[in-house]
UniProtKB/TrEMBL annotation:
Domain HTH tetR-type: 12-46
Full protein name: TetR family transcriptional regulator
Transcription regulation as UniProt keyword: yes
Domain HTH-type transcriptional regulator MT1864/Rv1816-like C-terminal: 82-177
InterPro entries named among the record's database cross-references: Homeodomain-like_sf (IPR009057), HTH_TetR (IPR001647), MT1864/Rv1816-like_C (IPR025996), Tet_transcr_reg_TetR-rel_C_sf (IPR036271)
Organism superkingdom: Bacteria
Molecular function GO labels: DNA binding
UniProt keyword Lipid biosynthesis present: no
Pfam family, one: TetR_N
Keywords of this entry: DNA-binding, Transcription, Transcription regulation
Length: 188
């Protein structure tokens, strides 16, 4: 018998909260059950197990990071849009370190839903790059470089890699502007 009010969304939300505070690696079904005040076997009425739950975390993370980037670019184009996306990406990692970790360590990229969610993020970025007039291959290289750059920044920041007294957002802004300057130079 299922507990009143317990559903797949409650389980996933509890996992999101725990991942964001304790990390994905520390996530266990027993801990989620304790958080929800149920016995661990009760979770299996709503999820297939821990690997399934981690897959759901990755999907949720991709959906939310894309939504954050979409919100950030409303009314912006070209450099302003890419700058906004870079900040949205890093701010998402700051706000949701567990979900970001779930995105960064995709459990099974061949999962159709996960693959589709990842492709949607890439297609969104390609649409932002369209005004630069790049070929599809060049645009994909730009997306890879851009993601590598903001992922590196977010990862270093998360691991306390920036210990100097410099303002981190200013460092991020300068890094993104330098990348954009190189992008503009390559299309001029």
């Amino acid at each position: 018998m299922q507990r009143q009010g317990l559903d797949a969304e409650n389980v996933l939300q509890a996992a999101v909260e725990m991942a964001d505070t304790q990390g994905v690696e520390g996530l266990t079904l027993a801990a989620i059950a304790a958080k929800l005040n149920v016995k661990t076997p009760s979770l299996y009425n709503h999820i297939k197990g821990l690997p399934d739950l981690r897959m759901q975390l990755s999907r949720r993370g991709l959906m939310l990071i894309k939504a954050a980037m979409v919100d950030a670019v409303i009314g912006k184009a070209k450099d302003d849009a890419l700058l906004a996306v870079g900040f949205a990406y890093v701010n998402f990692a700051r706000k949701h370190p567990g979900l970001y970790e779930a995105i960064s360590t995709l459990p099974d990229y061949e999962d159709p839903e996960l693959k589709e969610a990842g492709n949607e993020v890439v297609l969104f970025l390609l649409r932002i790059l369209a005004p630069y007039g790049l070929s599809e291959e060049d645009a994909l290289h730009v997306v890879r470089g851009f993601r590598s750059m903001v992922h590196g920044f977010a990862s270093l920041e998360h691991r306390n890699g920036f210990r100097m007294g410099l303002e981190r957002d200013e460092s991020l802004r300068r890094m993104l502007l330098t990348y954009l300057k190189g992008l503009r130079a390559s299309v001029d």
